[in-house]
Every structure is written in C-alpha cells, then in structure tokens.
Amino acid sequence: MAAGFVHDGDVIYIDSGTTTMHMIPHLTEKQHLTIVTASVHVINAASNYSNLNVLATGGSLFSPSKAFVGPQVIQVLRRCNISKVFLASTGISLEHGATNASPLECEIKRCLIEKDCKHFLLVDDSKFDVASLMSYCSLKEFQYIVTNRLPPEKYQSYCTANRIQLITPDTIHKKEVEKPTMMR
Predict the structure, then answer these.
(1) DSSP letter assigned to residue 38
(2) Contact present, 120 and 144 (Cβ < 8 Å)
(3) Angle between helices 71-79 and 103-113 (to 10 degrees)
(4) Cα 7 off chain centre by
(5) Alpha-carbon torsion angle 135, 139, 145, 148, nearest 10
(6) In this structure, what are the phi and psi dihedrals at residue 156, rounded to the nearest 5 degrees?
(7) What is the C-alpha separation between 112 and 36, in angstroms, rounded?
(8) What is the DSSP-derived secondary structure letter of residue 1?
(9) Which distant-in-sequence residues (6+ apart) come within 8 Å of 61 by Cβ?
(10) Which is nearest to 71 in space by CA: 112, 114, 107?
(11) Largest Cα–Cα distance in the chain?
(12) What angle do CA 25, 27, 33 make, to 5 degrees?
C-alpha cells in the first residue's frame, strides 16, 4: 500500500524495520527512483533490481536491527533532498507517539521527521498501544499511517482530527470502489 504513493523520479527514505523492507518488490516498476537507507535489509533487497538507485548512508552497524547508525548517517541525511520518508516503529501510542527501542535509531528518525517532505509511518496492528524505550515524534507529525487493519476507534478519531490519512486494505479498497462512482 505504501509503495503506491511512490512515483517515478522520487527520492525516498526507507527505514530499517521488518515492515518497511517489504516495499522493495512493489517498487521495481518505478523509473529513476532513488532509495536512501541505513537498512542492510533494504540494501540487500534493492540490490536485486538494477533499475533501483540505492544510496546507503554508511555509519556503524547496529546488529539488532541490521541498520547503520551514528553521526555519519545524520550528516548524509541532512544533505539529501528526500521527497518521501517511510518510517517504522517498534510501538505507537497516542500518549507517547512513535517509539523505538534504540536511542541511536531514534536520533536518525528524528532527523528524518524534520525533513520538509511527506512522512509515512508503516506499522502492523500489533504495534498499536505499545510504547518502547524512546519516543521519536508525535503521531501528528505524520501525514500518513499505513497499517494492515483499522486500528481502534481512538486512533481513527485522532487521525481524522489531525488530518492524518489512515491507509489500510479496507480504506484502499473503499477508495477503489468509490472512484468509478465519483467519475459519473
């Protein structure tokens, strides 16, 4: 679903995480796409497709998430003109926002949230009402939350109140069904 928001010529950031790396096979038809990442999993997955341009941030390898961290990553990201950021989270809540278990990865995520571009949060339904070690931003800093099913009503209300587009298989299907009717 998230890959549907990526267009030819975009420069996107794909975060480390078990959810975000699954975007890669859905991006293979894009032309002139540049993927910036600190994720070893994303680098490996994208390396199978010659038409995907990958910019690896470098840095020190953080083994638990197989991602590069450290000041070098922040320096590279500050120089990049990114059009869309796709972030992961180990847990989200209305009280604590988007959270992560690694302080080093939180610093990178905060840097990306400061970029003047569209921000997508990709989380599965097990991440709702979970707060891990550190918060890296409030949920209202995202324009899109992409998840596998509709979250509890309090999240739906929060998204509506904060103009966050909630993307689920149900909302995508509903838009596809409504689209032809609107064209009449």
Answers:
(1) -
(2) yes
(3) 10
(4) 15
(5) 60
(6) -65, -45
(7) 11
(8) -
(9) 40, 67, 68, 69
(10) 107
(11) 55
(12) 140
Tokens of 36: 């910036």
Cα(80)–Cα(12) distance, integer angstroms: 10
16 Cβ contact list (under 8 Å, min separation 6) = 37, 38, 39, 40, 41, 42, 65, 66, 67, 88, 105
**Rg of the chain in Å (alpha carbons):** 16
Per-residue pLDDT reduced to its tens digit, 99-139: 999 999 999 999 999 999 999 999 999 999 999 999 999 99
**Residue 40: predicted pLDDT:** 96
| Count, residues in the chain | 184
What one-letter code names the amino acid at 96?
H
Residue 174 tokens read as 């509903």
pLDDT mean over 8-19: 94
| Gap between the Cα atoms of 115 and 82, Å rounded | 8
